[in-house]
Each structure stands twice: as C-alpha cells, then as structure tokens.
Specification:
CATH architecture of the largest domain: 3-Layer(aba) Sandwich
Order of helices and strands: EHEHEHHEHEHEEHEHHEEEEEHEE
CATH class of the largest domain: Alpha Beta
Shape: globular
Bound molecules: S-adenosylmethionine
Oligomer: single chain
Radius of gyration: 20 Å
CATH superfamily of the largest domain: Vaccinia Virus protein VP39
Strand order of the largest sheet: 1-2-6-5-4-7-8-15-14
Number of domains: 2
Strand content: 25-35%
CATH topology of the largest domain: Rossmann fold
Length: 334
Amino acid sequence: MIRTVASWCEIDGRMNNLELHDFQPRLGSFRDEILKGLAQAQKAIAPKFFYDKRGSELFEQICELEEYYPTRTEIHLLKTYSQEIADLIGQHGLLIEYGSGSSSKVRILLDAFHQPSGYMPIDISFEHMLQASTELAENYPNLDVIAVCADYTQDFQLPEYNKKLVNKKLIFFPGSTIGNLDPTEALHLLKQSISLLKTGDGMLIGVDLKKNPTILNAAYNDSRGVTAAFNLNLLERINNELDANFALDSFRHWAFYNQDQSRIEMHLVSLKEQTVIIEQTPFYFSEGETIHTENSYKYSIEEFQKLAKRAGFDSTHVWIDPNNLFSIHYLQVR
Ligand SMILES: C[S@@+](CC[C@H](N)C(=O)[O-])C[C@H]1O[C@@H](n2cnc3c(N)ncnc32)[C@H](O)[C@@H]1O
C-alpha cells in the first residue's frame, strides 16, 4: 500500500512534472531481516540492504573504477544501440526502471526515445532516488517523472499513470542487478514484470556474462578498496539504524568467483572470535566465520534467453560488446 503520495508542487512548488510514491520499503523489514539473517547457520544479509545514502554513494564510486568493467561497457552498448531500442518502443513510451540509482543510464534512452510520455524510476534507496529524480525532472521538463520508492522483490502495484497517452511500456533493468537474485528469484521477478505489462511491451535488461574469473575477481576486489568499503558499510548501517555494536575493524571484505554456481560471492569475514549485540540479541562469530552479503550471478546468452522464455517473454534482440563482457537483452511480452 502506498503510504505517501506527494506531487512535487506540494514539496517546493517549483515543478509540476515530478511526483513521488513512497511505499516505505525501508521500515520494519530491515530490522526483521537482519535479525533473521544473522540467526542462520550461514549468516546472510540480502544485498538490497547495502543501499542507504552512503551505500548508494559508494556504489556510484564503484561504477567509476578501472576494474569495474560492467558500467562503462553497458553505457557504451546503450549509446551504440539506443536508436534501435527507441524504434522498438516507438512514440509515447512509458519507461519504468528497476533499481534506478542515479538514473544516469536512462538518460541515454530518453535522449533517443521518440517523445516519451513518462519515466517511472523504482528504487529502495529513498534519498538517493529523490535526488536523482529531481535532477532528471528538472533536466527533462516535458517528461512526467513518477518516482516510486519500493522493493521490487516484494509485491507492489505500479502507480496509475494516465496524464498522457502511452503506447508501449518498457521496463529497463540495467547494471546486471538481476544477477543479485538467484535464478529462481530472477524468474519470479521476470514473471511479476509481465503482470505489469501487456502483449508487445518490452523489458531491457543488462546481464553480466560468464568470463575469465581473473577479470571477475578483479572487478569485485578493486585496488582502491571501494568495494570493501561498500561491503563494510552494511555493518555501519546496522550500527546506525539499529541498536548494534559491530566493530568495523574486526571484519574484512572477501569476494570470489564460485565457478560451480556461476556467481561472485561477497562476504564479510570475522577477524576474531567475537559477540555482537543487536537490540539486546547476542550474535556469536567464530574467527573466520562469514556473513554472506551478495551474489552476482553470471549468465551465458543462451542461459538468460532460456530464463526469459520460461517467464513468458520472446527474446527478440541481444547486444554484446566485442570483448564478450556484457549483454543487453530486449525481451518482448508474448
Ligand atoms: C547495482 S545498483 C545499480 C544502479 C544502476 N541501475 C546502474 O545500473 O548503475 C542497484 C540499484 O538497485 C537498487 N535496489 C537494489 N535492490 C532493490 C530492491 N529490492 N528494490 C528496489 N531497488 C533495489 C539499489 O538501491 C541501487 O540503486
């Protein structure tokens, strides 16, 4: 249920092309999921909890890193094929973006699209999304920006949009963020997405490809330690938002490619035997014990197309860079 709906006019009276729908995904679930995740035999926290304000800022820094090839490769692909993508959608499209973050990649599409009607960014990170949506609404005054703060892994309804004519809808899901879900969860999300679309609408998804593990391991273990800071910030967030006493210097970042599972795993490793208290509940860590904080699944083109087909999409286009690092799939609802 939407708890807050505000048009930007109510916030500062300047713009009338931005509105905010806040499902308040950060309340309640954070505490419950942290306590539940740390009570498991393999302690685990879902990666969606990385993204408080600081986490979102650190992620932006990761995107700039030399070792982190996905962002620049995907941007290059989008720039190269944006016209082709725009032609698939035609005039008066509605662009919906999952995990919109800074909303920077979508600008490449918006610049190529033919008179897009609206843009609906959906993100769990409230402040970051609000800032990005405000800037975008200012820069694109003829575009309706309907910002939605929600967790796309939970059931939620898209806000009604009928201010302008909409021909086709396109759900844009860049950054290989779909790789943070395991294949069963990814299939569920694809099926859920179809329920938001109609026959002929599309989904554009950035998917990281299987490749030499040396390249993958470097991408998640950068020399400047930004990914380590991003991972450790999760403990800082727990300390800030819950009554907790994690000592950040008693944990270290660990990321590696798990070939059997075709995924990068990120963990936080306890450097010593210790007990951490969260809201009066003690959590014991042996030396070397880990909290599993992220998976990033890698797919071959065929594996991802098969998944999309099982969900009910036709896989009509796929664009790949010359070094076979990254793919962008265009899927059409059957
Ligand atoms: C890996 S970043 C990608 C950001 C951007 N789309 C890009 O391609 O660079 C993941 C983004 O998805 C958001 N996010 C992660 N899990 C989410 C969830 N379950 N629901 C909504 N947003 C989520 C994060 O806040 C973050 O902005």
